[in-house]
Structure formats: structure tokens, C-alpha cells
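User: Please write out a complete single-protein record containing the residue sequence and its fold in C-alpha cell form, without commentary.

AI:
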Amino acid sequence: MSIDLRRICERIEETEDETSKMTYFRLAKENSYLMIEHNVSELSHVRLHYVEAAGPGPALLFVHGSTGSHTSFLPFMLQLERHAHVYALDLRGHGLSGRAPGAYQLPDYGRDVAAFVNKVVGGPVFVAGHSLGGLIALWLAAQHPDQVRGVFLEDPPLYMTQLPRFGTTGFYQYFKHLSKLSSPTSRPERHVGRNGRICQSFTHQRRGRYSWKSPAQAVAERALQLHQLDPATLDPLLAGIARVPAG
């Protein structure tokens, strides 16, 4: 049976019945990977993994936050593919991208994204960044304005990434706890078990935005993101030097 993915997206937008909407989201999720390509770009200092949905229209690049990955944006790509050529990458040290110990500060991430836009996209992009991704989007717009057509910022931590202010926030305790749990030999289920409360809290806080994911799906996705994370990415955050080099 042939499934019209575009029609599924239209039905998602049209229906007001939550049960029907969940059914359409399930169909979309089960078939969306047919439209999304996984690729790798070898930059000068690191390998970046990214996914791409080559729709018509302008280029749109999603940049995730600290400890996240491209998977956070997969549910959106199926619908946005109808209007734009969509990319979502894994930052260095995250997801399926390469690691770069000692080089996890804002300029490091920003230079990666600039090189990615130049090499892979080949033209200016709209950048949608969440949290750390928002800071990266701002960095890119300031340092390489010719590469940016516009930015969309979701919860960028503009004023709370440096000590002592950052040390008084719940995010500091969160990242500190993650740094203790994470290790190269950890398994995804370890994060679900020993870090279950954090994963579930993360899920509940976002059920409004990601309501098509069940709690189990959201926790499993978060556990995988933490499993793939290079723990060294947390060091600049905890030291309060994520935005600028030390010294």
C-alpha cells in the first residue's frame, strides 16, 4: 500500500481529535525516515553527522542544545520538508558526530556550523537553535552574516552561562549530575535506570510541545542522547567558560 506522507501531514493539521492526531503522527513517524537522509561531512577538525530532508524552498538548519542531538527535530522535519530544504546536525561531541576533547566552547561549535553551511548547504540559511544552539545561531549571524538569512532562537541562555550566576541554577546541578553518570562504557539503559528521574522530568516539562511522543519514547530518546554524549562537553559548562575561551 502506498502511503501519501504529504496527505498525512495535512490530516495532522486538519484534525482536532487527539486520538486521530496521534494515529497520523504514528504513521508519519513510521514512514518519515524514507524521506530523511543520514549523511556525514568531514570537516577539517571533526566529523559531523547530519540528517537532511530535501524539500523545496530555502535552507533551514536546526541546531540542538547541549547534551541533545538531531533526533530532537525529527518530528518536525516531515512537515517542514514541504516548505524548506531542512537540515539537522549533531554538534561535535554529540549524537553520531566525532569528538574533540578540549574544544567544546561556543567558537568551536560556531566554526563547525559555519564550515558545514559553506561545505554542505552552499548558501545562506535560516538557523533555528535551541538553548546552546541558539547561542551558536547568534555567533554565526555575528561572525558570518553572509551565511545567515534569519535566526529563530528557543531559550538561548544569553545571561546565565557564566559563574557565579550559572552555579545558582538548576541547570548547573543537572549538568554536574550528568558528568558523574556519563562514561564511555555506559549503556543507554543506565541513564533510564539511574538517571530515570531526570529523564522523566525532562519529558514531563516538554509534553506540551512533544505530545506525539509517549513518555517511554521520550525517555528512551533522551537516554540515547546521553549515551552518545562525550562527557567532556560538560566541562566548559561546569567551569562557566562555555561562551568564551579560558584565560
Q: What stands out?
A: The chain is about 45% helix and 15% strand. The longest strand covers residues 47-54. Confidence is low (pLDDT under 50) at residues 191-211.
